[in-house]
Specification:
It is elongated, with a radius of gyration of 20 Å. It is mainly β and 316 residues long. Helices cover 11% and strands 41% of the residues. The longest helix has 12 residues, at 201-212. The chain has helices at residues 4-9, 137-140, 201-212, 246-249, 269-277, and strands at 13-18, 21-30, 34-38, 47-50, 56-65, 70-74, 96-101, 104-118, 125-133, 144-147, 152-159, 178-179, 194-199, 221-222, 225-229, 236-241, 257-261, 264-265, 284-291, 294-301, 303-304, 314-315. The protein folds into 3 domains: 4-74, Thrombin, subunit H; 96-211, Thrombin, subunit H (Beta Barrel); 221-315, Pdz3 Domain, CATH 2.30.42. The strands form 4 sheets. Strands 15, 16, 17, 18, 19, 20 and 22 form a 7-stranded antiparallel β-sheet that branches. It has a 6-stranded antiparallel β-barrel with strand order 1-2-3-6-5-4.
């Protein structure tokens, strides 16, 4: 990746400061002064935004998405035209990217887009991209990830520390438990490459569209079920189907064992949580399930409602 990617992106990247100390960056997502940042970039008290001309403006927190920890900031109207960054439609393994940091760009590549992480404090499982970057975790944390076209492809919130835990126990975005991660090493590959995790473009587009809407609300998908791992035959058992939910209207009941969603075999509750989280509100998904030894299918409409997580079940 050459410097042209940074040239395309830097007009839409602003540095966040607190008491004169840089704390992270924010991406312009609307010319009206709407900025996207990760919650870990914020500090208690007023946040300052350093503009491209060196001037300082005070940013106001307008909204936060608990699930992704994405935060919407607003700066006052200015005469200088802001350049809004768009969100990429997709990201792919091997794609070259850069992380926008207060010190400038940090280059790297996407290692995989099929990782999973449990987000904190919401404790929800999300699909993540694994990213290899040429810097320390301190430099990358709370960065905006940009592709060669200057489009947003992710929001970084965590990096792996030097450790030797099994891959299925790696620290993920937001500090939860991740699966499908690479072995963690402080120096990954040639030189000093750091393993980091980012929310991918599909979820990022949902967040940005929600922040840009009149309500400033991010609408994540749900079908109204609580579920857990099956103890024997595989699949996932529905613990509860909420009254009035689209799952109930489609005929699902507590005790049903989910086998597939949209043709994808469901082997555990984490996989089901991620598949449902990637669904689009307003769409209809096909769920195959087993009840009393018989396999059935249900067409379930995906809606957008609040999601909660109990100590033993996942609610989506």
């Amino acid at each position: 990746m050459d410097g042209t990617a940074w040239e395309r992106a830097q007009g839409g990247i602003l540095v966040l400061e607190h008491l004169g100390v840089p704390t992270g960056v924010a991406a312009v997502i609307d010319e009206r002064g709407l900025l996207l940042a990760h919650k870990t970039s914020l500090r208690t008290g007023p946040m300052a935004v350093r503009m491209r001309d060196g001037s300082i403006l005070t940013a106001t927190v307008v909204a936060q998405d608990e699930v992704t920890q994405a935060t919407l900031l607003q700066i006052p109207p200015i005469r200088t035209e802001l350049r809004a960054l768009s969100v990429a439609l997709t990201a792919r393994a091997g794609e070259r990217v850069l992380a926008a940091t207060p010190a400038g760009p940090v280059y790297g590549q996407i290692a995989g887009t099929d990782r999973v992480g449990q987000m904190r404090p919401s404790l929800r499982y999300l699909p993540l991209s694994e990213v290899w970057l040429e810097a320390s975790a301190a430099t990358q944390s709370s960065s905006v990830l940009v592709n060669e076209r200057g489009e947003i492809v992710g929001l970084l919130g965590a990096s792996l520390a030097e450790e030797t835990r099994p891959a299925a126990q790696k620290e993920s975005f937001g500090g939860g438990a991740g699966v499908g991660a690479s072995a963690a090493r402080a120096n990954y590959g040639p030189g000093s490459l750091q393993v980091s995790y980012a929310i991918g473009p599909k979820v990022m587009k949902r967040v940005v569209d929600g922040f840009r809407s009149p309500s400033r609300e991010v609408k994540h998908p749900t079908v109204g079920i609580l579920f857990r791992m099956s103890s024997g035959a595989g699949g996932v058992i529905l613990d509860t189907v909420l009254d009035g939910s689209t799952a109930q209207l489609a005929g699902l009941r507590a005790g049903d064992r989910v086998l597939t969603v949209e043709g994808k075999t469901i082997s555990d509750s984490v996989q089901l949580a991620v598949v449902l989280f990637e669904a689009t509100p307003g769409s209809t998904i096909t769920i195959a399930y087993e009840r009393d030894g018989q396999t059935k299918t249900a067409k379930v409409r995906v809606t957008s409602q609040d999601m909660v997580l109990t100590s033993r079940t996942i609610h989506l």
